[in-house]
């Protein structure tokens, strides 16, 4: 079936709402044709992943839209940028790149987007409701919105997410449609390594289901203590190691109250059993260095650290001082909450450095170019070696903090 | 000549480079060099510049489009891309490069890479609706 456009779609194409909207709509139409959509649908929100400065092309695109007078027409959140606009001096790079990167972020604000600059827009006041049709970029946000919130988005990469925000329309395909949201593979967690907590299980399972390339897995057997931030870590790991845009966690996520609901009454096409050995092996594969390696820093908050995650960290700041810096990526709304609770001063006294508007693994903020970074994030562990050309050690939050205290990788 | 489905129009020619697994261009491709820099990837260290890229689809991050557009802008992008699965991130990256810079990196959909991966050169010609892949030797 060819793409059918509505009267509204055609009016945008014809320039009824300006040249910027027409340009955005042209790209949406070609994208929709390419993915085989039969029509477009209204969206109620967008999340734009175009603020990381990857070179001239990303800026040229947004400047074209600004010059054409485009504006977003739905609430539009922004993903991390390359520069912390609340502390631009933290950017390590030449002045020209810094200027272009800052301009890229401000140009998005000129288009009417909200300066959230976070990869966790689902933990801001813009959190989508169940069933909302949205056009989101950023792989961890996409998988969270679909899986944990039951909102509906496909994988919108840079450029097209912004086009959808400007048109208020997105192609009706893939995970926007109920029929495509059913599970196809069952992942059974048969056993877990002794002493592992919900977070470590979530990261290892996420890394494995991503690597296996399973189409929409339903995960059975996550611990009852699995929290929202654990599901966030699972999704982020799976969306890094694979193209996964949705999973079900049976009994935990809103479209998977039961196995039958997750599979929409169909049988599973594939069953994968994961045991303690498989999970331990997955966790080990996320490190490029051995136990005992000297540490340059600890990085937390990939995706952005939530208030609940800070709440878990705070009591663990007491004790021996940290020998290496602890860098935590988070966003403006969380910072406001940290200040309201009096936590920010305590964090900074303990040697924690907060990165806002940006992310340590995606831009040059960390003040060293060699050495080993330790993280409790599967996503950070996956990308740090190629992005930052650093060694990486993966471990639980407790292991990260213990390692920071002795200055080398330990897993007590 | 093999008929394919045209996803982004244009013409390109080069030696094939078959990726044995999907690749995320973001953090997987360095636009400044055209090299595959994802250490997990089977083709890590290979250059996509000027090649006809045979890839099953994208992978991981949803921000691959800008890296692809930037590689094309700098002349380090593939000459053409053949997919076996429609990957919107690849398609948008190539489309934007064409809109902003007039630089064509055709993208087309084929059934499989059987007759293509062993060729020494491929030419891809994609127009609205239809694409042709020529094995040049």
Structural account:
- The complex is a heterodimer of chains A (about 400) and B (about 140).
- Helices cover about 40% and strands about 15% of the residues of chain A.
- With about 400 residues, chain A is an alpha/beta fold.
- Chain A folds into 3 domains: about 5-175, Aconitase, domain 3 (2-Layer Sandwich), CATH 3.30.499; about 180-285, 3-Layer(aba) Sandwich (Aconitase, Domain 2), CATH 3.40.1060; about 285-405, Aconitase, domain 3 (2-Layer Sandwich).
- With about 140 residues, chain B is α/β, with parallel strands linked by helices.
- Chain B has one domain: Phosphohistidine domain (Glucose Oxidase, domain 1, 3-Layer(bba) Sandwich), CATH 3.50.30.10.
- Chain B has 2 helices and 10 strands.
- In chain B, strands 2-9-10-1-8-7-6-3 form an 8-stranded mixed beta sheet.
- In chain B, α1 packs parallel to α2.
- The radius of gyration of chain B is 13 Å and the shape is globular.
In short:
The complex is a heterodimer of chains A (412) and B (137). By secondary structure, chain A is an alpha/beta fold.
Number of discrete domains of chain B: 1
Going by CATH, the homologous superfamily of chain B would be Phosphohistidine domain
Helix content of chain B: 10-25%
Strand order of the largest sheet of chain A: 12-11-10-13-14
The helix-strand sequence of chain B is EEEEEEHEHEEE
Count the DSSP helices of chain A.
15
């Amino acid at each position: 079936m060819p793409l059918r456009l509505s009267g509204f779609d055609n009016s945008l194409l014809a320039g009824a709402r300006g040249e910027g909207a027409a340009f955005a709509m042209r790209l949406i139409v070609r994208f929709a044709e390419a993915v085989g959509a039969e029509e477009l649908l209204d969206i109620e929100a967008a999340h734009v992943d175009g603020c990381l400065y990857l070179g001239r092309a990303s800026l040229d695109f947004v400047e074209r839209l600004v010059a054409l007078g485009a504006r977003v027409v739905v609430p539009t959140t922004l993903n991390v940028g390359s520069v912390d606009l609340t502390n631009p001096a933290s950017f390590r790079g030449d002045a020209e790149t810094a200027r272009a990167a800052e301009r890229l972020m401000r140009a998005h604000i000129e288009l009417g987007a909200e300066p959230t600059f976070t990869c966790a827009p689902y933990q801001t006041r813009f959190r989508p409701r169940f069933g909302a049709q949205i056009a989101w970029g950023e792989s961890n946000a996409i998988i969270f919105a679909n899986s944990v919130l039951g909102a509906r988005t496909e994988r919108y990469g840079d450029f097209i997410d912004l086009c959808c925000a400007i048109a208020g329309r997105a192609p009706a395909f893939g995970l926007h449609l109920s029929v495509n949201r059913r599970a196809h593979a069952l992942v059974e967690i048969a056993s877990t390594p002794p002493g592992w907590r919900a977070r470590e299980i979530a990261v290892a399972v996420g890394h494995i289901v991503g690597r296996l390339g399973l189409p929409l897995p339903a995960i059975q057997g996550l611990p009852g203590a699995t929290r929202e931030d654990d599901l966030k870590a699972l999704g982020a790991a799976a969306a890094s190691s694979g193209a996964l845009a949705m999973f079900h966690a049976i009994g935990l996520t809103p479209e998977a109250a039961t196995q039958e609901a997750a599979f929409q009454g169909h049988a599973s096409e594939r069953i994968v059993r994961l045991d303690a050995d498989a999970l331990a092996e997955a966790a080990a594969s996320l490190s490029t260095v051995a136990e005992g390696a000297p540490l340059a820093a600890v990085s937390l908050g990939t995706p952005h650290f939530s208030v609940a995650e800070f709440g878990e960290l705070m009591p663990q700041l007491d004790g021996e001082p940290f020998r290496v810096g602890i860098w935590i990526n988070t966003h403006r709304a969380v910072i406001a909450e940290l200040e309201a609770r009096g936590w920010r001063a305590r964090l900074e006294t303990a040697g924690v450095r907060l990165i806002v508007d940006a992310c340590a693994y995606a831009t040059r903020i960390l003040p060293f170019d060699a050495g080993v970074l330790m993280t409790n994030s599967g996503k950070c562990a996956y990308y740090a070696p190629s992005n930052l050309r650093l060694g990486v050690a993966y471990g639980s939050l407790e292991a990260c903090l213990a390692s920071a205290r002795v200055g080398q990788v330990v897993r007590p | 000549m093999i008929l394919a489905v045209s996803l982004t129009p244009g013409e390109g020619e080069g030696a094939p480079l078959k990726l044995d697994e999907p690749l995320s261009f973001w953090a997987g491709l360095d636009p400044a060099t055209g090299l595959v820099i994802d250490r997990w990837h089977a083709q890590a260290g290979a250059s996509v510049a000027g090649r006809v890229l045979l890839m099953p689809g994208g992978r991981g991050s949803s921000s691959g489009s800008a890296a692809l557009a930037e590689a094309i802008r700098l002349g380090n992008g593939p000459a053409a891309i053949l997919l076996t699965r429609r990957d919107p991130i690849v398609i948008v990256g190539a489309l934007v490069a064409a809109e902003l810079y007039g630089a064509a990196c055709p993208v087309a959909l084929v059934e499989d890479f059987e007759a293509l991966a062993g060729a020494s050169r491929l030419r891809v010609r994609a127009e609205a609706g239809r694409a042709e892949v020529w094995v040049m030797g």
